[in-house]
Design a protein that fits this description.
The protein has about 725 residues and is α/β, with parallel strands linked by helices. Among the domains are: about 5-65, no CATH class; about 90-170, Sandwich (Immunoglobulin-like), CATH 2.60.40; about 205-410, TIM Barrel; about 560-695, no CATH class. It is built from 22 helices and 22 strands. Helix 7 (about 300-320) crosses helix 10 (about 380-410) and helix 17 runs antiparallel to helix 18. About 45% of the residues are buried.
Length: about 725
């Protein structure tokens, strides 16, 4: 590529917030390919077909920015809750012609209007700027300092032209940074087991080989009795569980609705009064099918979803036949969740035309719900829509009950917000204008994925999201924060930048695209304060310093995982835990503790072709050195006995005491680690049929009575409380 074209392409990339290179896990700088830059810039809306168009496209972008009197979103940081110092000055940055009169109108979210009138000479910090050959004045319009927190409508009128924006007035730090010394457990809901006698009323309703919200509530009550404060799980969002079957909870149909697979049938209020559903639950064939599913060690998602739906469909019919459609409870739910009817129609359409909405007939494909799929429509499609409305209502009620029950025991639910959504799902259909086309989200190469990663979902378009006032992101946060005490934000680096991979290209040809971090932190902070929810960022892997600096400034807790923080150096065997971090031994995407400690994962990586023979042998040697160094570290600090570094149980208990004694805000323990489970819930990058489906080896009753579970948790509670007393 000629030098002038390359320079113009780089300038265009800068104007759109596209990085022209990145520093990888190897600490080397990797330049973006011209083709990768072209594809990503086109996805962002740059008018170019080839590199030679870059210069004209850059001029067009500069002209567009010059016409922007006010940015689509304006953030105004208020004082943190409880801080006594005076609120700082409030102002709105603008770029205006020097001679034009200016009028600003601020419509407060809770009612009321604030106005300002003046000229460029009245702006604070005014300075002359040149944009696309135009001379403008950049400055700030001053506003009263007593603005309430909230989403306020902003209108700036200059020379007869009106420019709309959103002002987010918000505390600088998210709600309630975990003050320290709490602990909790992690388990996927689908993996939770009971034996037949554990259900209510003897054998209880068939479980179909999958856990449910009721199990989560019971687990929370038990943890509260041991002194713990948190129960964490994987995303519980709507999913494709038939055709196509998508097991990963990180590729949901929607980030706005729940997965009805997790309904606890015994806690559906209408069950006893619905003869048809009760008869089905007592049917010998259904119970035999459930028993067969219960006997498996891997959840059969498709079979479980189909069986549970048969029951829920009968419950829905009973509910509507009894006049439930007109009940106050359902009316309130529909009013509070206006999208649910649209979602129900979408799912009904998918069951008629196939899950891929891109193949649906127009106008349905283009987002217009036809009469056939409305809630009041007769026939199978209307029945399906009514079923999905009912299922969402039941799940919402059960999530609310689980959260309230957990709170009654001093426990909060720790929910997980995925980064993306399935491209054939509801969000991508209804909010298609907010998602970039021709690219997918992913990650550059690292030691575990030498070719990089392509996660397959369309990323949010940063500029379109801004123009929409980040309403979709706000809705996703609210959906989770209604019931969470803590929320994990998957791949928190995505608040700052995201790696975009051109569709069909090698992930190594991707480039980073900037996101409006201040604006996204602002909505995260405001929603967290309104819901009273602490926020945890998944900041593992290669993360730029500015991301962790931003997290610290905004009060977002870091993630600390022992597997990534130990080394074969007795003096520095364990990296200190950052204050306030959420600390754990491992994650759902890593080897379990036992597998890591005993280096069983090395053999699995060798078998998968991730390591050659020499690399595998070297890693086994290194792991043995790590075991010895960590054992010595634990002994020196009074956390363990180094006599046998290969004793995984002793190492686990020592490390939990070490984490418990640290300044971590929360210590999170995977239940499976306590009995030294060798198999992980997910093996990233591998087509393992057990991924996201493997059930716990023990039932809840066994877990609650096992000394190898209860003992370490009681000791962790003791150490955490001892830390509180020292403070």
């Amino acid at each position: 590529m000629p030098h002038r074209e390359h320079a113009a392409l780089r300038e265009l990339a800068r104007l759109y917030g596209v990085h022209t290179s990145y520093v990888g896990a190897d600490e080397a700088r990797h330049p973006a390919t011209p083709d990768g830059l072209l594809t990503v810039l086109r996805a962002l809306g740059a008018p170019l077909a080839r590199p030679a168009d870059a210069r004209a496209a850059a001029r067009a972008r500069q002209a567009e920015l010059a016409r922007r009197v006010v940015e689509p979103v304006v953030v105004s940081w208020s004082r943190p809750t409880g801080e006594r110092r005076r609120r700082g000055a409030v102002s709105v940055p603008v770029r205006v012609p020097g001679e034009a009169p200016i009028r600003l109108t601020l419509e407060l979210e809770a009612g009321g209007v604030r106005t300002w009138q003046g000229t460029a000479g009245d702006l604070r910090r005014a300075r002359a700027v040149q944009l696309d050959g135009r001379e403008l004045v950049a400055g700030r319009i001053p506003l009263p300092t007593n603005l309430p927190d909230g989403y306020h409508g902003l209108r700036v009128e200059v020379g007869g032209a009106r420019h709309e924006a959103l002002m987010v007035r918000v505390p600088r730090r998210v709600f309630g940074a975990h003050a320290g010394h709490d602990w909790g457990v992690f388990a996927p809901v689908y993996a939770l087991r009971r034996d037949g006698a554990e259900g209510r009323g003897g054998a209880g309703a068939p479980r179909f080989g999958v856990g449910h919200v009721g199990d989560l509530a019971d687990l929370a009550a038990w943890i509260g009795g041991l002194g713990g404060g948190v129960v964490a799980t994987l995303p519980l969002l709507a999913a494709f569980l038939d055709e196509p079957l998508v097991a990963s909870p990180y590729s949901p149909v929607s980030r706005l609705f729940w997965n009805e697979l997790y309904v606890d049938l015994e806690r559906v209020p209408a069950l006893d009064g619905c003869r048809a559903a009760r008869a089905l639950l007592e049917d010998d064939e259904l119970r035999r099918a459930s028993a067969a599913l219960e006997a498996g060690d891997v959840v059969d998602l498709r079979a479980a979803a189909r069986a549970k739906r048969r029951v829920l469909e009968r419950l829905a019919v009973c509910f509507y036949d009894a006049g439930g459609a007109d009940s106050d409870a359902l009316r309130r739910y529909r009013a509070a969740r206006p999208r649910v009817e649209d979602y129900a129609s979408f799912r009904a359409a998918g069951e008629t035309h196939g899950a891929d909405w891109q193949t649906w007939p127009a106008p349905l494909r283009d987002g217009a719900v036809t009469e056939r799929f409305r809630l009041d429509a007769p026939g199978p499609a209307g029945d399906a829509a009514r079923y999905h409305l009912y299922a969402q209502w039941v799940m919402e009620r059960q999530m609310a009950a689980a959260a309230a029950g957990a709170r009654a025991h001093g426990v909060g639910l720790f929910l997980d917000l995925p980064l993306g959504v399935h491209g054939s799902g509801y969000d991508a259909w209804r909010e298609r204008a907010l998602f970039a086309e021709g690219v997918t989200g992913g990650a550059p190469p690292d030691p575990f994925f030498e070719r990089g990663q392509d996660w397959g979902f369309r990323p949010l378009h940063p500029e379109r999201s801004r123009r929409a006032g980040h309403r979709y992101t706000i809705a996703c946060l609210r959906h989770h924060m209604r019931h969470a005490a803590m929320l994990r934000v998957d791949h928190v680096m995505g608040l700052h930048r995201l790696f975009w991979v051109p569709s069909g290209a090698d992930a190594r040809d991707g480039v980073y695209v900037d996101y409006p971090a201040d604006e996204l932190y602002a909505v995260l902070s405001l929603e967290s304060h309104r819901a009273g929810v602490a926020v945890v960022g998944e900041d593992l892997g290669t993360v730029p310093r500015r991301v962790r600096t931003g997290m610290a400034e905004r009060g977002v807790h870091r993630s600390y995982v022992v597997q990534f923080e130990v080394r074969a150096d007795a003096e520095r065997a364990i990296t200190p835990v950052p204050a306030g971090a959420v600390a754990s031994l491992d994650t759902h995407d890593t080897a379990t503790f036992a597998s890591f400690w005993e280096a069983r994962d090395v053999a699995a990586r060798r078998e998968a072709g991730e390591l050659d023979a020499a690399q595998a042998e070297g890693e086994k040697v290194r792991r043995a050195e790590v075991r010895r160094a960590v054992a010595l570290h634990l002994a020196r600090h009074g956390f363990g006995n180094p006599s046998d570094p290969d004793d995984a149980s002793a190492a686990l208990c020592g490390l939990l005491r070490c984490l418990g004694d640290s300044p971590a805000g929360l210590v999170l323990v995977a239940l499976e680690d306590l009995w030294l489970e060798p198999e992980s819930q997910n093996r990233p990058g591998r087509d393992d049929p057990a991924n996201w489906r493997r059930r716990l080896r023990r039932t809840l009753a066994m877990i609650m009575e096992a000394e190898d579970v209860v003992g370490p948790l009681k000791e962790l509670d003791r150490v955490r409380h001892a830390g509180e007393e020292r403070e």
